[in-house]
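User: Fold both of these, please.

Assistant: Here is the first one.
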Amino acid sequence: MSCGPGAVSVPGPLRGARMSAMVNGAKLQSLMLLIAGNPDVKKLGLTKLWKLIYFCDVRALREEGASITGSEFIKYPHGPVPSRGDKSLKLLLRQGRIETEQKAVGGYTQTSITALDAPDLSLFTKGERAIVTDVCRELGGMSAKKLSDISHEEPAWVLAHDLDKLDEELMHYGRAEDPEDL
């Protein structure tokens, strides 16, 4: 799959594919550790982490028929954020499995994230691990700003109101399916 703005899309929705009824907290935490420990992910801050989780989940939804974490995503100015992301991150911090550091980056403060523990890979299917690897390889070197810009082209984000949940049905569609804004 290519790495442009529509890179996380596949043609057409998967009929019957659904987000999980509930967030899998252990899987969300392990996905955070997997992304934070991936060598292809450069300069990981909160915004970038949330976007990479989003792109992993929507690619799994589109290709495998179900998201990896079961997360709902909320529309924030810098793009989609998993609804239980902050809670899961704080738990990992309390457990000493990750560390965060405040860094000055280009005139603003970034919360840099580093994995201190390995993820539980047994929670992921082979297909999910491949998706995470591909997303990290394709998008992990991009800036948080670039990932935010790409996420702003996703129909689910575009059509949501600020601080509302993204429509699960619209998450099946990516920018590549409507390249001319029809």
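And the second sequence with its predicted structure:
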Amino acid sequence: MTDWNLARDIGREMGLSRKSLCGHTRPVGSGYAVAVASARAGLRLAVRAARLRASAQCNRVLVPSYLCATVSTALAKEGVVLDFYRVNSRLEVDVGDVSARIAPDLLGVLIIRYFGFPLDQGLRDWLVKQRNLFILEDRAHVPPWDEAPPAPPISCAVYSPRKFASIPDFALVSFAEQPPAIRVEDTPDRQFVLRRLLGLLCLGVYEDHRYGLALTLGRQYLRRAEQDLDKRYSLARPSAWGMRAYASVDAGELCARRRRNYTSLLGKLRPTCLVQPLFGYLPDAMTPLGFPILSQERDRLRAYLIGNRIYPPVHWPLPAVVPHDEFPEADKVSRSILTIPIDQRYDERDMCYVANVLNGFS
């Protein structure tokens, strides 16, 4: 195990301070934006918007073969048929496969901004030629504070700022044009919100005082909250707590720190056959969700990192609805990927430590 005298772990869940809940709310975004409690609800709202502009026979949505279970489940909750298309080992879309699947029963096409990175050039060129498709862009990995609203050919974008900051409940659905009227419940899902809020506040107590019980309770509350959300997927507005926490985020500092940390780690990491960055570059003015790496020995690497107090999530295990044998490249990425935390809590010293640990893996 690598020596380390820093007092904090890398990659634990973010805590919430009471101060973040005491401010004012603010407008949720420019253009045609609707605030909902979660990105799951945002995806369902987008599907309903697509249905209101399509014929009754349209019930099929093209989705990438590399996605998380919450996305596929949210879409399935709306009763659509999921039709998977190929992505390669760099998570670039096979536009030929997408084109071949377009038919009169198509309701829309889902594209995903993986880890916040821009869409690949081939997909952008293809999108420019599309005129009558409903294109839903999953921007859950993109911070909404510095991103322009969607514009044609993108019809709609869904953001999940609680992936970037401690926010009990808040997601944003942004449309390129005036959306049809869709009912969103005025009453927040109180059980989900309360459990999320208590969980984040407990983690905040742990961060400040290192009370082990606060960490345990915080994780329990958050786990129960996600279970609540998976069961109900209600189309509810965010709570006042969620709106205040969203408004309290220092977006400029958040984005700048994540960019600095990504660049720092990229410069210090020595790629090997066991550890490779998925993206060996950082585009201008782009804020990454994390630092994704690929490893042929992913599970052994993850255990090694956890042993050194670095806690990398997996984005993502492929859901069972994806036919793994039909999409071997997506399956291979899913079995080899880890996301190294580089969020705004960390600095140059932390990135030096993370790089030293990764470079020491053999």
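The beta strands are 32-36, 60-64, 81-85, 106-112, 135-139, 156-159, 171-175, 276-277, 291-294, 337-340.
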